Amino acid sequence: MPEILSLNNVTFSYTPENQELRNAVENVSFAVQEGEWIAIVGHNGSGKSTIAKLMNGLLFPQQGDVRILREVLNEDNLWECRSQMGMVFQNPDNQFVGATVQDDVAFALENNGIPFEEMVKRVHAALEQVKMSNFVDHEPHHLSGGQKQRVAIAGALALKPKLLILDEATSMLDPQGRVEVLQTVQTLRAETGLTVLSITHDLEEAMLADRILFMNDGKKFAEGSPAEIFSLGDKLTELGLDLPFAMKLSKLLQKEGVPLMGQHMTEEELVNDLWTSNFNK
Amino acid sequence: MDIKLQQVSYAYSQGTPFEKRALFDVNFEIPSHTYQAIIGHTGSGKSTILQHFNALLKPTTGIVQLGDRTVEAGKKAKDLKAVRQRVGIVFQFPEHQLFEETVLKDIMFGPMNFGVSATEAEARARELVRLVGLPENVLEKSPFDLSGGQMRRVAIAGVLAMEPEVIVLDEPTAGLDPRGQKEIMEMFYTLHQERNLTTILVTHSMEDAARYADNLIIMHEGKNVLSGTPREIFKDIETLKQFRLEPPRIVRFQQKVEKMINTSLAKVCLTEEELAIEMARLLREERAES
């Protein structure tokens, strides 16, 4: 699988002159392969957002390098590299410029000098992909949070990026909006093999990824499949995160003396174990 | 101080072509010292309601009673400053409102505006900074050198420094990591109990509403449609669906399990801890019977 993006021994400090303060990111390496879904998790201040800024060249590392399609990101190829990445940010209200949904999706295409005919095609295709075709002429401000984020995803997709980056894109949404956005991303991946990198502290969201990168105090604390990461158990809570719902509940049930065979990652597994261990007699 | 809304409606940009009605005939009462959660789908009118609690917005029609002050449509309300000191609102992303050179000055700004002496304001700031879980040495720092989570706490301390009787929280944990979310919610709950406050939480999180509130007020399309204790409200999933809401995950889990074992637990459990205890109790009883 071709590599889309990699960080190689990256170190970054916002205050390089002050040696007493810790680096925001310290010696971090990881790679994203085409078609993968990677989640970066960690507490506030663990370095997640700094990594996002290093990936799209808003910041440059003091040590190590960032490579996009195996090419080292620098001042000269910055714009070329950015065009490979679509980003969706946390606050849906801060990323709209167009007066209608279709104007908004077209904005970046226009900036990139895409011919009109092609633009129309791409706008409609992108809105179709996020199931917002019925809203082309709506004002973005009258949409729900989940709909806004889907339009923002369409705006990113219209540029045909190699990588979609979701920077806490669901953290301000209501539960329904969150489900909407995550389902959209899952469908997109199933249909187009889109590569996704999501930065989040919602572990239920991280569970959908193929691989999780767990950041703590600027360093990579662990990297692995969701099962591997969640087997860290209490370490997760100690470092500011939470356990997935089913795991937390399995633990509490066992503490109260309810017999179970193990701790479970999904609700399904827990319900089944509860049945087999207690009622199926 | 009790808060009472009577037939309150509100229209944005009234009298212009952009007029948009956000509230229609809203009626409810919030008794002193209770913990209320206002929940509703995006666009249901939650944020418009909350701005009525300290008269930032005045109703287009109807009456808002804030303690002994009345804010009535079409009439000039007097002495709103006193009301604004008694009702503190923590808006979404309150850290965006920090502006002073130091944390200490920022926390002192509110109370001093309301005539509190500098000595008293500083004493409050020193106490509050510890209460919101920050080390005392942040007081001399610029608020802009702090992390997002720390800035949020400073902003909250600034609201608490006015010693409000009623505290209104608009999605106070948005954007915080899980530990930060829990710490902030627990802090508000402790304050609520220790200082005998009236707390009004506006939230998307059914989990927080279930865990902390005495009473829920459900908003839908600009009206208050339902009110009751979390246990009453969350047991009726069908009604909630009409308002595009879902009960907390733990309640849905309980229903799934009850269906599977064909037995009901003694009550609707609002937290994971409660469910674990009830489940253990049920199993003990079954064992005792067999």
TrEMBL record, chain A:
UniProt keyword list = ATP-binding, Cell membrane, Membrane, Nucleotide-binding, Translocase, Transport
Q: Does the keyword ATP-binding apply?
A: yes
CDD domains named among the record's database cross-references: ABC_cobalt_CbiO_domain1 (cd03225)
UniProt subcellular location = Cell membrane
Q: Which InterPro entries match?
A: AAA+_ATPase, ABC_transporter-like_ATP-bd, ABC_transporter-like_CS, ABC_transpr_CbiO/EcfA_su, ECF_ABC_transporter_ATP-bd, EcfA_1, P-loop_NTPase
Q: Which SUPFAM superfamilies match?
A: P-loop containing nucleoside triphosphate hydrolases
Q: How does it sit in the membrane?
A: Peripheral membrane protein
Q: Which PROSITE patterns did the record assign? A: ABC_TRANSPORTER_1, ABC_TRANSPORTER_2
Looking at the record, the residues that make up the ABC transporter domain are 5-242
| A single Gene Ontology CC term | ATP-binding cassette (ABC) transporter complex
Q: Which PANTHER family match?
A: ENERGY-COUPLING FACTOR TRANSPORTER ATP-BINDING PROTEIN ECFA1 (PTHR43553:SF24), HEAVY METAL TRANSPORTER (PTHR43553)
Q: According to its UniProt record, which protein family does this protein belong to? A: Belongs to the ABC transporter superfamily.
Q: What is this protein called?
A: Energy-coupling factor ABC transporter ATP-binding protein
Q: Which organism is it from?
A: Lysinibacillus mangiferihumi
Upper classification of the source organism reads: Bacteria, Bacillati, Bacillota, Bacilli, Bacillales
Automatic annotation (TrEMBL), chain B:
Output the PROSITE patterns linked to this UniProt entry: ABC_TRANSPORTER_1, ABC_TRANSPORTER_2
Q: Which Gene3D superfamilies match?
A: P-loop containing nucleotide triphosphate hydrolases
Tell me, in one coarse class, where this protein mainly resides.
membrane
What is this enzyme's class at the first EC digit?
translocase
ATP-binding recorded as keyword? yes
Chain ranges of the ABC transporter domain: 3-246
The record's annotation in SMART domains points to: AAA (SM00382)
Q: Does the keyword Glycoprotein apply?
A: no
N-terminal signal peptide:
none
Enumerate the GO terms in the molecular function aspect. ATP binding; ATP hydrolysis activity; ATPase-coupled transmembrane transporter activity; cobalt ion transmembrane transporter activity
> What's its job?
ATP-binding (A) component of a common energy-coupling factor (ECF) ABC-transporter complex.
Listed under subunit, the entry gives:
Forms a stable energy-coupling factor (ECF) transporter complex composed of 2 membrane-embedded substrate-binding proteins (S component), 2 ATP-binding proteins (A component) and 2 transmembrane proteins (T component).
Q: What is this protein called?
A: Energy-coupling factor transporter ATP-binding protein EcfA2
